[in-house]
Structure prediction request, 169 residues.
Amino acid sequence: MGIESALQTKPANAHFLYPGMIYAETGQCVISTILGSCVSVCLWDPALRRGGMNHFLLPFWNGEGLQTPKYGNVAIPMLIEKMLVLGSVKGNIRAKVFGGGNVLESTSGLLNVGERNIALAEEALAENRIVTLCRDTGGGCGRKVMFMTGTGEVFVKKIIKGQSAQQGG
Prediction:
């Protein structure tokens, strides 16, 4: 099934993630989101055929204010913990990483949030010894991501000023 046919049929168990959200449950569902400089990590357990996804805006929570999953260093551990609570074994969990595009024209250096989000995701997954199966990150485009938790498939539609491209992972 391509992303175009997936986009045309809305499954009964579909969940859209807004920035700062996490979703993981035991049943099969389709989780989708739209990313610019934000990053989503999809975690999938092939043994239990279930998965979860986050959508974070910024790499680091600095300890001030509310500790929320809008920060990568909060969102990734929270998603891993949710998978473990649902019965997954950490050694079975696999990751796919998406987003982190440089979609704002004037971002560079420390302001390049997309690159910093990607680096945080890669470091957090490596620290937790979670294998990353694929990634579609960086570049100058946004992405619509659809994650099928029952199969582990992810469909990506790139959003490029007036154009679109697709791929599966």
Summary: The chain has three helices and ten strands.
